Amino acid sequence: MKKLLRKRGIWKLFILLGCVAIVYFSFQILSIRVLSTHHRKERESAHHNTEVDLETDSKLPEKKKYLLNQNIHVRSGKLPHEPSDSKKIRFTSKVNRASKLRQVSQKVPIGKFQARVEEPVEDPQVDVEQIKAKWSLHWTRGVQDIHQSLYLPDREGLFTCLKTKKRLPASQINDDYCDCPDSSDEPGTSACPNGRFYCRFQLPGSPAQSIPSSRVNDGICDCCDTSDEWANVTLDNDLKLPDSKTYAVYQAPCHNHCDLLLKKKGAQDKVQALGARLKHKYLQAAGQLGKERETYGANGVFYLLSQGCANVVMSGYKYNICPFKKITQQHGSEPTVNLGEKPSWIQVHSGIYQLLMSDGAGFPCPNGLKRSTVITFQCGLQDQVTSVQENERCKYEVIYLTPAAC
Fold first, then answer.
1. Cβ atoms within 10 A of the Cβ of 311, count?
2. For residues 22 and 14, what is the distance between their CA atoms, to the nearest angstrom?
3. CB-CB contact of 202 with 169 (8 Å)
4. What pLDDT, in 10s, does the model give residues 9-40?
């Protein structure tokens, strides 16, 4: 034994085994400490995870108010997003339950308290009512309903000019002084030169009715609901017409006559429905046409009118109107005058059909101008010319009713 202990190799082995033992026990001690710390944190976390019973908690009434105000229905201690057997809401915090409830009830706004439970589904009906109420408070005279939002002030109380983007206080809208270079700040007054005033009442299904803003408060009732004459300005006696009905002009003081327009539109809608049935005959007549079909409108619907002429006498003049061919005028025994013989469409869509008959007789038109005629086709139950007028020198306008335009 003594011989073995004297050998250096044995001492080296003992030293090596001692080092291994020290490392092993150190690792074990470290593992025990880590596990202990982990278990202690779990216990602390479990201690801080509190359960608040909605039926027994002393702060229940205030929390119910928060929830109900945000459209979360609390019935029998249940929330819509929890399982059917759940009667509690779980909150996670680093403080005790009493302190947490005081913070929620006294400091946390409704929205933040709500977010701890669940984002609610907002009631769309409430939003619509809020928008209506907001618009009713900020309705701007002379602006279409679809553009009212453009005139709401921003957070700084400013309005931005629609085109030039100049910013100015919202109080300067409709103050009878033109501030925006694009005239957009005075839609309800006559202050700006290039503004447009939109009547408050609009016929359903019809293009928006508007007038130049220069006609606002001019003593002439342009809008059927009198919205353009809000200042009740009347014409001077020397400017008033003796009988406004004869000239189809309404003068201030204005009276609402929108009901008459609605009745008239109702009658037009009936004519439109009946005319649409008669339109089939005109489409059928164009069935034989080839590539030239579009010359006579969509699907050649006006082709049948080109196969005949309408003769009318107005203001002592006899007119022979042959759409797509030639229009002539004759006064008494004087020679016949050509009012146009070259057809071309001005507009043939969106319910508006205007045909230009150009290249008529030139003499005695000024500056070498040749006569021309615009035929406006409108919906009617039969082919009929109702109006022929010379609104400008050597320029004529014809109103032609026909089922083809329905």
1. 10
2. 12
3. no
4. 676 777 878 888 887 777 778 778 777 776 67
